[in-house]
From TrEMBL:
Protein name (database record): Cobalamin biosynthesis protein CobD
Function text: Converts cobyric acid to cobinamide by the addition of aminopropanol on the F carboxylic group.
Compartments, record wording: Cell membrane
Regions that span the bilayer: 70-88, 95-113, 167-189, 302-320
Membrane topology: Multi-pass membrane protein
Organism: Glaciimonas immobilis
GO biological process, one term: cobalamin biosynthetic process
GO molecular function: ABC-type vitamin B12 transporter activity; ligase activity; threonine-phosphate decarboxylase activity
Keywords, sorted A to Z: Cell membrane, Cobalamin biosynthesis, Ligase, Membrane, Transmembrane, Transmembrane helix
Family classification: Belongs to the CobD/CbiB family.
Record-level GO cellular component terms: plasma membrane
Top-level lineage group: Bacteria
Length: 325
């Protein structure tokens, strides 16, 4: 499917899925990722000895907890991905193409990023600090009850930059590589990393495999995203921030993405943030001015322009490849 006219089909289906996402946004009810999250939560409660029973915690060897987490990942991810593969094989060609586009739409979160962050900028512009705090709390895990406008702007920009890769560009990359099964695999793996990939007592061992698989699947997309961000702004500053700052960030993939994104926007991100009442000083990201509400829209525009860049490159490459074939 990824040769000859198949490559052109993938490019057109990618554009169709992205267009559907921008036109329709998230489904209001019964979103598949929400249902997947519920199934994953039940699996974790059943298989993770650190979820509730303190007696079992002390009796379960470390390697067994890791194996339980591996089993949970396989039970959560492999059945739906294999189901997609089988369905696409038995459907007529036109129906299969439609399923590819629809599943890409369901996996993408481009419109969702806009819908969750631009209202924060508008609330801050209107001086509605309480509303901005509430909206920001829906997209980040840090405390927002006492956050200043600058804190909220920084949180929203950081979320846009990082989730641009997780919710958009990683999905587009794996769709281009393997169609709908690739997009579904990536999004489900990324969702499990978001649920289980913490270095806490509960998840450090159980979620280790989920975190490592997400790191692996995201390695190439994250660096392509960082290059794309850098290309569309202050390029030299973006690459310098990537080179000097990314390694200090805890995530091997978020580091390049967020440092390059902050640099290309000319913003100083990272630094102080409060989690569960505890203030943390995180490594610096980018260089320049402190983020304001206007920078939230700038970050959204960067994600949107990067999406358009990727779609254009994919389409041009597909047309050239098809003509050569």
């Amino acid at each position: 499917m990824l040769s000859g006219l198949g490559i052109l089909a993938i490019a057109l289906l990618t554009i169709a899925g992205a267009a559907l996402d921008m036109m329709l946004g998230e489904t209001r009810r019964w979103h598949p990722l929400v249902g997947f999250g519920s199934v994953a939560s039940r699996l974790e409660r059943r298989l993770n000895p650190h979820s509730s029973d303190s007696v079992k915690q002390t009796q379960t060897p470390r390697h067994m907890t890791i194996l339980r987490g591996t089993l949970a990942w396989m039970l959560a991810v492999l059945p739906p991905v294999l189901a997609v593969v089988l369905i696409l094989q038995v459907l007529p060609t036109i129906a299969a193409l439609a399923v590819h586009a629809i599943l890409l739409y369901l996996c993408l979160g481009l419109r969702s990023l806009r819908d969750h962050t631009v209202p924060i900028a508008q609330a801050l512009a209107d001086g509605e600090l309480a509303a901005a705090r509430n909206l920001t709390s829906r997209i980040v895990s840090r405390d927002t009850d006492n956050a200043s406008p600058a804190d909220l702007s920084k949180a929203a920009v950081e979320s846009l930059l990082e989730n641009g890769n997780d919710a958009v560009f990683g999905t587009l990359f794996w769709f281009a590589i393997a169609g709908a099964p690739g997009a579904v695999l990536f999004r489900l793996a990324n969702t499990l990393d978001a649920m289980w990939g913490y270095r806490s007592t509960r998840y450090n061992l159980f979620g280790r495999v989920a975190a490592r698989i997400d790191d692996l699947l995201n390695w190439i997309p994250a660096r392509l995203t960082a290059v794309s961000y850098a290309t569309l702004g202050h390029t030299q500053l973006a690459f310098r921030c990537w080179r000097t700052q990314a390694a200090a960030w805890p995530s091997p993939n978020a580091g390049p993405v967020m440092s390059a994104g902050a640099g290309t926007l000319g913003l100083a991100l990272g630094g102080a943030a409060t989690y569960d009442g505890v203030s943390e000083i995180r490594p610096p990201l980018g260089s320049g001015t402190v983020a304001t509400f206007t920078d939230i829209r700038r970050a959204w525009q960067l994600v949107l322009r990067t999406t358009l860049l990727w779609l254009a490159i994919l389409l041009v490459w597909a047309v050239i490849f098809t003509q050569k074939g």
